Amino acid sequence: xxxxxxxxxxxxxxxxxxxxxxxxxxxxxxxxxxxxxxxxxxxxxxxxxxxxxxxxxxxxxxxxxxxxxxxxxxxxxxxxxxxxxxxxxxxxxxxxxxxxxxxxxxxxxxxxxxxxxxxxxxxxxxxxxxxxxxxxxxxxxxxxxxxxxxxxxxxxxxxxxxxxxxxxxxxxxxxxxxxxxxxxxxxxxxxxxxxxxxxxxxxxxxxxxxxxxxxxxxxxxxxxxxxxxxxxx
Length: 233
Fold this sequence. Notes:
Blueprint: H1 2-10, E1 14-21, E2 28-35, E3 37-38, E4 44-49, H2 53-60, E5 63-69, E6 82-91, H3 95-104, E7 117-130, E8 136-140, H4 141-144, H5 152-166, H6 168-178, E9 187-192, E10 195-200, E11 203-208, H7 218-231
Antiparallel strand pairs: 1-2, 1-5, 3-4, 4-7, 5-6, 6-7, 7-8, 9-10, 10-11
Helix pairs in contact: 5-6, 6-7
């Protein structure tokens, strides 16, 4: 179940952000759409404008919820999965987190450098999973904990760049053969212990590994294995 939650969250690039909006009559629930990237430890990363209402709300109360909706395209949406992550948002100056967000959302680079935009990290405290009728579970942060081999986060940018620049054909095989996705020009945007993230213009996709990496050095072998698997399809 925790793996299913992590795969769902990592497979989406946007979420509904709920904050406590300060008003004269007290705080009111306020929901807005935000772009999201997810770090190796499953912490959501946001890029927010200081002028946005949700940013003002976070300044007053850092408690937030993020709804990740995995029901798109289902004839009966309420039978599909959705996850709400509950945690606390705070500004971050961690440059690696900013780069991971921009790899996931390259168009955001147009405004990421503006003085009134800042990155935020959400420290997840628990999650609420609804996987269909009657399939409802709360999970703690400990239960959600994602495997994160030492050094993989630091090596990620180099791996992603190498795959996109030198092995673009392999990335297309991942998308077309292993995920059955149409079209070309797919690019890898991230790799973590449990899978790789892909993007083609406004579309994103997630290719999950059968088993998580236990060491950063295993990444190359996994990527080569996936190429062989794709060519055998």
